[in-house]
Amino acid sequence: MPQSPDALDAVAVRAWCSLALEALGRQRAAIDAINVYPVADGDTGTNLYFTVESAAAAVEAVFAAHETGPTVPAHADVVRAMAHGALIGARGNSGTILAQLLRGMAAVLSEAGDADHLRTALAEAAAAARLAVARPVEGTVLTVATAAAEAAVATGRDSGLEEVAEAAYEGARAALAATPGQLPVLGRAGVVDAGGQGLVTVLGALLEAVGGRARGGAVGPAPEALPLTGDCAEPGPDGGPAFEVIYLLEASDDAVARLRNRLDALGDSLVVVGGDGLWNVHVHVDDAGAAVEAGVEAGRPYRIRITHFAADRGSAHREPAQRAVVAVVPGDGLSGLCAEAGATTVLARPGEPPASGELVDAIRRAHAREVVLLPNDAQLRHTAAAAAEQARTEGIRVALVPTRAAVQGIAALAVHEPGRSFDEDVVAMTSAAGATRYAELAVAERQSWTMAGICQAGDVLGLIDGDVVVIGQDVPGTARTVLDRMLSAGGELVTLVLGEDVPDLLGDELSEHVREGYLAVDTVVYRGGRQAAPLLIGVE
Description:
Blueprint: H1 10-33, H2 44-65, H3 75-89, H4 92-109, H5 115-132, H6 141-153, H7 161-182, H8 184-189, H9 194-211, E1 243-250, H10 253-266, E2 267-275, E3 278-285, H11 288-298, E4 300-308, E5 321-329, H12 332-340, E6 343-347, H13 356-366, E7 368-374, H14 381-393, E8 397-400, H15 406-414, H16 422-434, E9 437-443, E10 448-450, E11 453-455, E12 460-464, E13 467-472, H17 475-487, E14 493-499, H18 504-517, E15 522-529, E16 535-539
Parallel strand pairs: 5-6, 5-7, 7-8, 14-15
Antiparallel strand pairs: 1-3, 1-4, 2-3, 4-6, 9-12, 9-16, 10-11, 12-13, 14-16
Helix pairs in contact: 1-2, 1-3, 1-9, 2-3, 2-4, 3-4, 4-5, 4-9, 5-6, 5-7, 6-7, 6-9, 7-9, 10-11, 11-12, 13-14, 15-16, 17-18
């Protein structure tokens, strides 16, 4: 057996992350099965696993950068990487809280990793996690974290690192066992808190890393049935908010303070973690678009993930829905629109298309046996195909509808009907997308040759079906020309998606242009938010 370390040094932190990931991997399904609070959506174990996976990957990246050097990475660098990795990869309510716990620990452990610092780190972590949650509730992971910290602080000053870690672990286990008596929804379901169980697993891995002895931690039984859904307060008759919204946010402390107040008024399960200009925001709301818009007002949100909770959340061990839609969207405004239509969304930031792993993750988050994937970008067809193939190996039936633009995805989503057969639904969605011509406006960055002639830097380009067909001097005039070309071949519905910096007046002007020139053609206008193109156009 390897000798126990005297301090939680770089190597021990690396071992902790690796052991925690392995342990959560083993218990992932069991923790998912006891997830009844704050929402019975059966994904707490999965969310914690992905959060720790991101932390472990960040630590491994630091070690990889030092492979050619004579020494291991600096202890502080590894601890900070663990916390940063957890922050940017945090998933769900419990994963976001775990990220804040690790961040709170890192602030102390980056100075030193001895027993005294571990005591302080656990106490700071528990306090930071409570501050991150808008409305703390006892009987949750917060209670377990507090008990772990109190047990660690109660150890004698002559206690070593292993004794402190063991006290924290045993304190957490005892608190976890008491959670059903603290939170009625757990007592009725006959389970312990899933997030708290995950924290016990992580602390067991810490003890193993510093003590060399594997620690278990039985996962509470899954309930046979649960007639309630969770929320940050006792569940109401409406079953709770419809969407989970998560995003990373670059913003100042003052802006985040205002954001907390705004989001707290919009929904519940609000957790905002981070600092130093980077935050992870998690909230459950009915208006997903408003939650994203609040982030836009506060700073720069990205990696936006919006998940539509299943209509039937009455079972703690939620059975997968029969069918779901996963859509890639170019702007935060469309994230809310598509989510309200029932889709799980993946945001494609300008110049940063999503990787196949992000699409696979979204397919998993959709939690359905059958998934329709809408890449909404011609450049993503190979990435989407790889994601679909990976998901199929996991037993999910995935159909890739080759949408080449967001407006085609909107058209496909509009005809989506989960009640019909999968094949019929895919055919209808594919047909609707194929019947939609798409266009966008762009601003030329330099002089170049196009199919419409030579453009100069600053010219407004009109692209139809991916090809430049119009070179104009301003957005309104170019948009009218593009619309006239598209509608010359006929059409029944025009869809306009306005970019963040485009005034609402443009939508009104273009709608009037269509009404005056093309009888029986309807127009619908959406705000796309922060997207690469100032205007997207679809004609069905």
